[in-house]
């Protein structure tokens, strides 16, 4: 099922090296908004810097893929010291394929980490990378996002998507 993630966790810092090893994941494509920071925010989530360092120390390759523009992403990417792909057009495959090329990894070794079923998980599953769905950091306030989140909540319940145990 294209909407069902391989792994479901609360927050990015819950992704442990042991979970990645269990699933053979050697590289992460990271979403930004409501995954690493609040929607359009520049403040790093608690523990993010330590988590990024832990991933680097364990040889996990990482890049950012976002539908946001480079003006929004450039200062954030500098803070976390990662390359990024802006205007990724998720869930379409183009951004994912560029990220794989940049990482130099195979689909089977790579996972997308994000907070949205209809962009991150759908696109990742369609392209063939592994998928890690996180709970959004903070609910968005726009009508479009509120409606999308209601549909996502329905699908999460229908598909019985629950947090993955280590």
Q: How are the secondary structure elements laid out?
A:
Elements: E1 7-9, H1 17-22, E2 27-30, H2 48-57, E3 61-65, H3 70-80, E4 84-85, H4 93-103, E5 110-114, H5 117-127, E6 130-134, H6 143-158
Parallel strand pairs: 1-6, 2-3, 2-5, 3-4, 5-6
Give a quick rundown of the structure.
By secondary structure, the protein is an alpha/beta fold. It has 6 helices and 6 strands, in the order βαβαβαβαβαβα.
Molecular structure report:
This protein is of the alpha/beta class and 166 residues long. 39% of the residues lie in helices and 14% in strands. It is built from six helices and six strands; from the N terminus they run βαβαβαβαβαβα. A six-stranded parallel sheet has the order 1-6-5-2-3-4. The chain is globular, with a radius of gyration of 14 Å.
Question: What are its keywords?
Answer:
single chain, 166 residues, alpha/beta, Rossmann fold, 6 helices, 6 strands, 39% helix, 14% strand
Arithmetic mean of pLDDT: 92
The percent of residues in helical segments reads 25-40%
In total, how many domains does the architecture comprise?
1
CATH superfamily: HAD superfamily/HAD-like
Distance from N terminus to C terminus (CA atoms, Å) equals 22 Å
Can you list the strand order of the major beta sheet?
1-6-5-2-3-4
Q: What characteristic shape results from the CA principal axes?
A: globular
């Amino acid at each position: 099922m294209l909407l069902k993630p391989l792994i479901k966790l609360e927050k990015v810092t819950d992704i442990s090296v042991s979970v990645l090893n269990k699933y053979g994941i050697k590289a992460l494509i990271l979403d930004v908004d409501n995954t690493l920071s609040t929607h359009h925010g520049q403040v790093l989530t608690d523990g993010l810097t330590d988590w990024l360092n832990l991933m680097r120390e364990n040889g996990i390759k990482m890049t950012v893929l976002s539908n946001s523009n480079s003006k929004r992403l450039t200062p954030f990417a500098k803070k976390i010291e990662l390359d990024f792909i802006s205007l990724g057009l998720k869930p379409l495959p183009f951004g994912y394929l560029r990220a794989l090329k940049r990482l130099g990894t195979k689909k089977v070794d790579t996972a997308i980490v994000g907070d949205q079923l209809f962009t991150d998980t759908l696109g990742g599953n369609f392209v063939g990378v592994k998928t890690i769905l996180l709970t959004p950091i903070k609910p968005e306030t726009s009508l479009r996002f509120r409606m999308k989140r209601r549909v996502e909540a329905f699908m999460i319940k229908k598909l019985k998507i629950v947090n993955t145990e280590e």
